[in-house]
Specification:
With 262 residues, the protein is of the alpha/beta class. α2 packs across α4 and α4 packs across α8. The C terminus is likely disordered.
Length: 262
Amino acid sequence: MTAQALEQFADENGFKFKKITRMPLEGDGTIRKKVSKVYNHLVDNEEWMEDLHAADVIFVASHSQGAIVSTHLVHRLIEDGHILTSRSVDDLAKSAASIAAGGAAAVSTTQAQRVFLLALCGIHLGPLRYLKTSSLQLYIQYVENAAARELFEFQNYIFALRNVMEHGAKVVYIASLNDQVVPIYSGLFTAASHPRILRALYIDNDAYHSFDLPSDLLILLIRNLRVAPSDRGALRFADIVRRLPPPSCDRGAHEYVAGVES
C-alpha cells in the first residue's frame, strides 16, 4: 500500500520515481526478538541493502506493534551506518577532518538521506485497559504468553525515538476512532512531543459521523497537541467517554486499517 500511495502521488503531481524498492519485513515474539529478526532479514538481503544505501528517501510504514519495532529498526540502522542522515554526514565530515593532516575541514560528497515513519494504530502506550481483565486474558495467558503480555506494558523505546528524531526523521502517528484494541491516545503516542511529529485520526464514515460534536472535540484536542506539550489527559478522558462501539461496527478498525503486517 505504501508503494501504491507513492506511485499515485507521483502520477498526480506529474513526475516519476527512479525506483521504489519494497522491503516487507515481519517477525514474531517479543519486541526485542522482532527487532532482531527484521534487522537480520533486511541486512541479509544484498539487493535490499544496496537500494537502502542508494536511497534518497526512506519511508517506513508500520502497524500496531510494528510501530515500536520500526522505530527500533531505524535507530539501529542509523547507529550501524546503513542510513546516513544529514547529522550522520556531518559527523563523518568532522571525523575525516580530525584525522586529516592539519585538521583541514573535509567537504563531504555523501548525499544525506531523509527518513519518514508512518505508524498506523501503533500500540505505543498499550491497548485498552479493560482488555487485561476481559476474556482475552485467558487467550493471553495460554496462547501468546510473553509476547501478548508485553502489550500491556509501556513500551520503553524513548531513547530509540529520540535518536531517530535527532537525525531529522519525520513521524506521522495515525489512530482510529473505532479501534477496539488500541485507544486513541496510544495510537497517537500523546506522551511524545516534537515539532516533526504529526498526528491524524481516521474516522470511519460508515460507523461515525465525521462532523458530530464528540468527533470535533477529539479533532480539536489532537490539534492542540501541536501547540501544547500536554493536554493534561483530556484526550485520554475523551477517548474513554467515546469508547462505546457503534451498533454498525462489527469489528474494530485495528483489524482492517492495517497496511503493513506487524
